[in-house]
Design brief:
With about 500 residues, the chain is α+β, with helices and mostly antiparallel strands. Helix content is about 45%, strand content about 10%. A five-stranded mixed sheet has the order 7-6-5-8-9. A hairpin with a 4-residue loop joins strand 6 and strand 7. The N and C termini lie far apart (about 80 Å).
Length: about 500
Amino acid sequence: MLVEYVDLPARERRLLIKDRTPILVAPDLTIDPRLVKYFARSDFADRAASGRVTYALEIKTWLAFLWARDMRWDEASEDEYIDFKRWRTDPDLHEPMVGEVPPVVTGATFMKARFALDHFYAWAKRQGHVSASPVPPDRAVGHPTRSPHGSSVRPQRSKWVTPNTYQTWRDVGLRGFRLERSGKGVAPAAMEPKWRGGRSQQRDEAFCDLMITSAMRRGEQSTLLLYDVPGESVEVSLARAVTKYNTTRVFTPLPDMLAKVQEYIFGGRDRALRRAQRAERYEAFQQSTTLLIVDGVETKGSRLRYVLDTGIAGFVDDLDEAKRRRLFRRDDRGRLEPLSVWLGDDGIPMTPRGWNSVCRRADARVLREYQRLGLPPHTSISLSPHSLRFSFALYLLAALHRRIDERESYRASDSYDERRYEAAYDIVRDMLGHSRVATTKNTYLEPIKGMRRSVLFDTASASEDLGALISRLAVGADAILDSGTVFEKVG
């Protein structure tokens, strides 16, 4: 029967159905045509690819919850939504089997479900499928100064670690080192003899080191193309199609981190590429995915223009995440080669969500080492792509605070006045890609105020490894700090 569907990509294009459009199949193998219309025909289809996947997974979880209650989604009321929220956020309501992970999330993560269901039911109401949404009104509406995410969101998103702690997590979780006790803490020791992560080690280390020194979001960094990796440490423009709010943003890779990425490209990436070419995986990939094969590129003003083998042309920074994974070229022997920087062990471009799995595997290995030393599991190190970005931003902000304090003779014992550090917040806002400096302050003001009075603040420009790199960034910001900024001495 599959022979009748060999032209499926062409059919989908004629119907304007995008790649990675979700399809939800019920346990009895039926498909609700209303869900098909929502995913393929509503403004849901205009969302970024990563957003479509996130919303679809949340809607799937909701439908599975209702299915267990023998209820359709158009029959659900606010009572079901309230029960669903408790079921998703209260671990006491679950008794998982050995080895099973209960479907429990934090209050912050549950907000994704709320937003997804709110969007879905608003569409369903407009279409006449329901008379009312089961999602209750957001109490924060009408209070412009209050976050619509709720009070439980910020603490969960504010996880950060010092460079030393990050390096321990990286060396143990990604590089295969063992832990040993060191004073009151732990430190990486010799490499594990049975370490099995060699194939992906160079890639994972380069990605995580770049993320904790660049402030890129997961979706921005994971969709980098070979064209985006410069030969030297210069400003690189991130594609508008993959940045949040679709805004132009730049980052400057530190020389040490750029060297690691380039070593991966010519090392681990090249080996994954050759394995895939020998196994003809790209030809198989082409059977299920319409590849965009680049014939050539040229610079038009400040933008990079590509021309496909079909004659179609466009600008590289207009390509979203899904299209970037499909972007290929042919080498001098006519073999297909992906243009994505980050490849899986099979040579296929990685998805942004794949990096969460990389971090979870590293978390699990670090936890095993803590348990081997007899240390409580809750003291283990657990990181995600977001916490890497958050850690970099907070540590850089601390280093900039120190620079300003030293230059203006402020003392840590002085009462905190954020007006003194406006230039520091502006620098970090630009690096993070926040639309307003108020967003940066809302995220980092309280952590930095608490950090200033701790010994961690004194080591924010420590001259060692990752700390030295961040300190170098802070020193390099002196020109910006000098550019017309007036510092008012208070107290």
